[in-house]
Design a protein that fits this description.
The chain is of the alpha/beta class. The chain folds into three domains: 227 residues, 2-Layer Sandwich (Nucleotidyltransferase, domain 5), CATH 3.30.420; 214 residues, P-loop containing nucleotide triphosphate hydrolases (Rossmann fold), CATH 3.40.50; 77 residues. The chain is 44% helix and 14% strand. α9 packs across α11.
Amino acid sequence: MTSIAFFDIELNTTGKLLLDIGCVLSDGTGFHKNHPEEFAQFITQCDFICGHNIVAHDLAYLRRHFGHPEWGLDKAIDMLLLSPLLFPRQPYHRLLKDDKVQTEERNNPLNDAKKARDLFYDELSAFRALDDTFKGILYGLLHNQSGFDNFFRYLNYAAPVNKEQLTSKIRGLFQGEICKESELDHFIDEDPVALAYTLALLNCDDRFSITPPWVLKNYPDVERLFFLMRNNPCLQGCDYCSRAHDPLLALKKHFVFSGFRKYGDEPLQEDAVRAAIQGESILAVFPTGGGKSITFQVPALMSGENAKALTVVIAPLQSLMKDQVDNLEKKGITEAVTINGLLDPIDRGKAIERIENGYASLLYISPESLRSVTIERLLLKRKIARFVIDEAHCFSSWGQDFRVDYLYIGDFIKNLQQKKGLDYTIPVSCFTATAKQKVIEDIRSYFKEKLQLDLRVFRADASRTNLHYRVYQRDNEEEKYSQLRSIIEEKNCPTIVYVSRTKRARKLAQKLTSDGFVAKAYHGNFNGLHNGVWFFCLAQILAFNAFSGYLCIF
C-alpha cells in the first residue's frame, strides 16, 4: 500500500529558527516534536511527503538544515500548487484562504498536518471528477514540474504528452473561449504552469471566480496569458474575438443602446472604445454630458468578463464617484464599487471584500487614495486591465483645476507594475471635458515621461449648440430677484441658480420657497459634497439635469 506523510513545520518570524514539526502518516501514526533528524527517520519509509506550500517553505528550510539541495523534492506533493487547479470556482475550498490552510488551532503543526491530509484527499476526489480531456491537459503541462509531478505518480495517472496532441486538446476543449490565434505551442514550452492555472480558471466557467493573489504574485505570466488569449483581439477576427470584443454587443448588453454617440459626423466615442479594447492608451476630450463614462465603462465591463480584470477609475470628486456607481446599479450593473472617505467602516469593508472576491470590475478612487497601503495591497491581488483618469486636465498646471496628487499617478502605476512582476505597461485612458492644446500636450508628455505611453487623442468639438447665453442688466437686488422669478416662471423647468456665498444660497432658497417655489440650497458645507463645488441654490426641483434645464448666475 502506498504510504504518504502529511507534515507542517513552524518557523519563527525571520524564517531562520525551527519552532516545531507536526506530521501524520496515511495510517494515522503521528509525530509532534522539534527534532528534524527524528522527523527524517519517521518518514524514511514513506513513498510521498505532502503538505501545503512545502516546496517554497517547509522543504526550503529542511534542505538548508540537512545541507542537501534536493532533500524531499523527489517525494514532494505540494497542495498549495494544486489547489487553484482543482478548486478554481467560488466558493473556494472550505480549508483554503489564499495561500493558507484554515485551522481552528494556530501554531500547531500537527493540527495543520491533519488539515492538509483532509485537503489532499479532497484534491484527489476533485481531480478524479474532472473531464478526461482536462485531466490530460493538466498532466501534459505539469507531469514534469516539481511539486506537481508526484501527484500524478501517486495516482498512477499518465496521458499522451506529445505537444501537438496537447495543443489540439486545449484548442478543442476551449473552442470559442479563447482566441484561435493564441500561440499555445509557445505557451506550453515557456509557461506551462501559468498556462495550467489560466486554463483551470477558464474551465470552471464561473464569471466571478478569479486567480488567487498568491498565484498572481508567484506566476505573473498568468495575467499575460489571460490577456493574450482572452483580451487581445486578433486581426483575423476569430469566432471568440468577433463575439467577445464587439463593443456594439457589449453596449447593447449593458446599456441597451444600439449605437455609440457621434460628435458631428465623427464616431469618436466608438473609435475611443475600440482603441481601448485593442489595448491602446488614449486621451479623450469629450464635452460634459457627452458620454465620457460609457467610453471607459464598456471596455471595463468587457475586460471584467473576458479577463476577470479590474479597471481602476481615478476621479477627483467623491460625490461624482458615488453618482456613477449608483447610476450603474440603476441599470442593473453591480460590478462597480467606490472606496472613499465618505464610507463608514462597514461599507468600506464590504467594498474591499467585493474587489478581493472578484465581484467588482470597476473601482472608483480618488488620486489621494493611491497613497493608501490598503489600496496598493488590494490592487496587487487583482489583475488590472486599465487605469482610467477622469478630469485629466488636473495634471496640468495650465489647467483650471491643477491637483498635485494627480502627478503621483504615474509613479504609483510604475511601482505597482514592478511589485506585480509585469513585463508590460498597464494601459491608461484619460478623459476631460475641455482642454486647451497646452493642457493636452502636458497630459501626453507626463505619461510619455513616466510610463513611456503614447496617448492617442480623440478630440470632439467643444462647441455646444444646445447652450445659449443671455445677460440681463439690473441695477439692484430687488430688480435681480424680480428678473429671476420671471425667468423661472417663464421657463417652468428645472433651474440651477449659482450664487457666490453659502449664506446667500440659503437666503435665496428661503425667499423663493416663501414665494411658492420648490427650492433647496446646495453648498460645500453639505455632507457628501466636495468642498470645491460652487455654492448654489437649486430652484424648482431637487433632482435635476443641468443641460435639460435652465442656468442662472445670480
